[in-house]
Design a protein that fits this description.
Helix content is 29%, strand content 17%. The protein is of the alpha+beta class. The longest helix is centred in the middle third of the chain and has 25 residues.
Length: 379
């Protein structure tokens, strides 16, 4: 039987036991970084994407499109300047669902400390990290490789840790010592930025500034920290397969390695790493809420949760931190769906209502299979 360098069956083996390989990988509690540290030169089959899936083709991302960059300086100042920024947020949200912000109020030094803190966590001794390794989503901090390891068609070439910073923040001692202080500091600053972005989005739709905040879109905050080791065969796998975000809003910090792409007009467009910038994108739940507002303005689903992905890279590690504005698995009976005041015979609802918890449970159960979970809720 043909085997790979790490002893697992090769892609050409007819006796491949995927379940056993997944279990063996998971039980190391060392993640993808553990494979790289072991010196592998061929990636295990559990990471190899399906070659016949045209939607997952690794094109160059070299297009004529450029992701919008919005300068937030002065957004809380004079009315003319704020209206100008609101207009740019509206255009970017309608045409892209993704944009970058600069002069957002968070110092570059804080951004760099956050990236360094995440890197320190993943690069500490594996015996130290193992105490956090779990697949129990109720833990204060969850560290593992691929939340959907046992359900996804192909595992992603990345390791992750995440923790909820709101509405019920962890005790400091529940967080890793190597990144504890910066996690708490950065979460406070990102929460403030997120509230400001939701105000701008509300105004972009002709709503009162506090409308989306009053709907508790900023009640929850989840920090998701990714570590993408260098990959010996990046053409065979993904850092993160294409997906949409199962939240209201995402604020993303990425380092300078690159690899993030967004799907725009059926083309994969690179999201450049601009020093001091943050990437913002609309999530599934915000799309479901806003779809009927958009129908009044332009056309249905213009503010949309856009598919995006991360390419694997021969260089690394790549580090990113995604801040999800969502209560996620926190119990809540609040239902989200199209705003009822705008519904009529000519403007019927496009999505059925759901709680955030139920939506996230469904989204996580299907994993990153390339099919947007929001389709499941479309009427």
């Amino acid at each position: 039987m043909a085997t790979s360098i790490n002893g697992a069956p090769s892609a050409g083996s007819s006796n491949y036991d995927r379940a056993s390989e997944l279990k063996a990988f998971d039980e190391t509690k060392a993640g993808v970084k553990g494979l790289v540290d072991a010196g592998i030169t061929r990636i295990p089959r559990i990471f190899i994407r399906s070659p016949e899936n045209n939607d997952e083709k690794q094109d160059s991302g070299k297009t004529q499109f450029t992701l919008p960059i919005i300068d937030l300086e002065g957004f809380n100042g004079e009315l003319i300047r704020r209206k100008e920024i609101v207009g740019k947020v509206r255009d970017a949200s309608e045409n892209w669902g993704f944009f970058q912000v600069v002069n957002h109020g968070i110092e570059v030094a804080v951004l760099e400390k956050m990236i360094d803190g995440v890197r320190r966590f993943f690069e500490q001794d594996n015996e130290v990290k193992k105490q956090f390794y779990t697949r129990d989503p109720t833990r204060k901090l969850v560290y593992n490789s691929n939340f959907d390891l046992y359900s996804t068609p192909a595992a992603n070439w990345r390791d992750t840790f995440y923790c909820f910073m709101a509405p019920n923040p962890p005790n400091p001692e529940d967080l890793p010592a190597v990144c504890r202080d910066i996690l708490m500091e950065f979460s406070n600053q990102v929460m403030g930025l997120g509230i400001s972005l939701l105000e701008l989005l509300s105004e972009a739709l002709g709503l009162a500034p506090n409308h989306l905040r009053d709907m508790e879109c900023a009640k929850g905050l989840l920090s998701i920290c990714h570590y993408y080791p260098a990959c010996p065969q990046p053409e065979l796998t993904f850092g993160t397969r294409k997906h949409t975000d199962n939240n209201f809003l995402t604020v993303l910090l990425q380092d300078q390695i690159g690899g993030l792409q967004v799907l725009h007009l059926d083309k994969w467009v690179d999201v450049p790493s601009i020093p001091g910038s943050l990437v913002v994108n609309i999530g599934d739940l915000l799309q479901a809420i806003l779809c009927n507002w958009i129908l009044q303005l332009v056309s249905n689903d213009k503010f949309k949760s856009v598919e995006h992905r991360v390419l694997a890279n021969r260089f690394g590690p790549r580090v990113s931190v995604a801040w999800f504005f969502s209560t996620s698995l926190q119990p809540s009976s609040r239902l989200y769906g199209p705003i009822k005041e705008l519904l009529s015979e000519d403007n019927p609802p496009k999505y059925r209502e759901t709680t955030v918890e139920d939506y996230v449970i469904y989204s996580n159960s299907k994993g990153l299979d390339g099919i947007p979970p929001l389709l499941h809720y479309k009427l």
